[in-house]
Amino acid sequence: MSLVIIGTIAFDAVETPFGKTDKIIGGAATYAGIAASYLNKDVKLVAVVGEDFGVDNLNIIKNKGIDTSGVQVNKGEKTFFWSGKYHTDMNSRDTLVTDLNVLADFDPILPESYQDCEYILLGNLTPQIQLKTLERLKNTPKLVVLDTMNFWMDVALEDLKNVLKRVDILTINDSEARQLSGEFSLVKAAEIILAMGPSYLIIKKGEHGALLFGEGQIFSAPALPLAEVFDPTGAGDSFAGGLLGYLASVKTVNFNNIKNAIIYGSALASFCVEKFGIERLANLTQEDIQARLRAFVALSSFDIKA
Amino acid sequence: MSLVIIGTIAFDAVETPFGKTDKIIGGAATYAGIAASYLNKDVKLVAVVGEDFGVDNLNIIKNKGIDTSGVQVNKGEKTFFWSGKYHTDMNSRDTLVTDLNVLADFDPILPESYQDCEYILLGNLTPQIQLKTLERLKNTPKLVVLDTMNFWMDVALEDLKNVLKRVDILTINDSEARQLSGEFSLVKAAEIILAMGPSYLIIKKGEHGALLFGEGQIFSAPALPLAEVFDPTGAGDSFAGGLLGYLASVKTVNFNNIKNAIIYGSALASFCVEKFGIERLANLTQEDIQARLRAFVALSSFDIKA
What we know:
The structure is a homodimer. The first copy, chain A, is α/β, with parallel strands linked by helices. The first copy, chain A, has helices at about 30-35, 55-60, 125-135, 150-155, 155-165, 175-180, 185-195, 235-250, 255-270, 285-300; strands at about 1-5, 10-15, 20, 25, 45-50, 65-75, 80-85, 95-100, 115-120, 145, 170-175, 200-205, 210-215, 215-220.
């Protein structure tokens, strides 16, 4: 039984109101993998990097106990590079540079040792690659979580709709849910999106938390109010990784467990934004995580018996 | 022991994507009073209307068991009139008409029978009138809740700061909290605003719920996701009325009780927006309210023991 995450491993250069970085390690698979590693001992990544990524950087990931045998290292090529600048509200950002590099021809390889995969996160990539990944698994996983973004709705909507038919949980943000459904009301949007295939829809609302729709129910998860959001990069990926890691650890996928998984994912995402890149996320103790979970319980509990 | 609410009683004409109304009963005191009336049997209003308001309209309020002996009826004058149009997102609106009419010279009268007031809501009015109301009470109430808006921060900031010194709970929305504090982070904004006087700050975030700050703690309350928000007018006032009504019924004002009060207020506000004006809010059964409270419990509960 293992948990597979496919996504990008990248170099990022980030500018926020609090400062800016040179090239640092980033990418959806990096954040999601590290987040999941705290909740699951058997995390396997599928990704591609260039020769410039270097052994030291790959070791940062390996040292979290993550299996990188599905990470291709392309000789003579360069790692995917993204550079962006966040505005004061931290909800909007400008992309300054996107150098696809190795990502342009990414053809995912799933080693034989990955074939026992029961839980998979299809991180934000082209829907074609997300679908190809599922097709390269001999068995259908017990749980398929898919993360995507507005860009793929703009340029590859039909492909996205095809992969959605094979997905159990879809995670997108509120404006993406509105775009995908054509409905402003998130309740109506969820109805339409769930009819496209997923059994559960998680709508991420950044500082406003997240909504879960499925089994005819709705769950509203809070976000931890933070004095400073230092760098939001990777928060959504950390959320998805924590979500999957928790579900793989409890082994039963239902509405109640997904509610808890969202809190675990939110807790890990709340660490991610405290420093640049993976600096905070990669250096957590189990007690840090437990304390943060207690903060979420305190934040949202009340005592009404109706 | 009684609960006093001062605010506007108005005629509103509202246009939303779902339709438009002729002149209907509105006003902060109307909404707050009706909401509070479900949780408390001793609600007293302070307000002013014109002769055009009519006995039938006043009876709608009286029939909820609300004491209107503090509502002045100014002969030969016209009731405050507001007309607005909501945009698709229902969070922004254009004010089309504001005819102050009787409100221009409003000088609140607190009848002798109101002097046992222990719980008071100073609804959205000029800070000068809010202060004058407190000064006309012989005893300091046990709880003062103040609602205000960005307009008073623009034109009467010093007066507002004066009345804030005498307030226990302040309710404003997120953009108002940012304006009043000069801080974007709501955590930092709360710190600054609490230093201005209130012991507790409630930041209303519309469809994203509300945050409570005080006693060094934070509580995040969800909003009920609705398929259709028919008319948001009065939601904030219904929230404040429900909040005060609950606190007056439990008689102890502390962080835990304010958390519950926010859920009661949110439940009443969630009814308010389902129809135009007070149509839905004024026609609730106790079982309707209990069912809605159960929906809030289901919406936000999860089972993590950290």
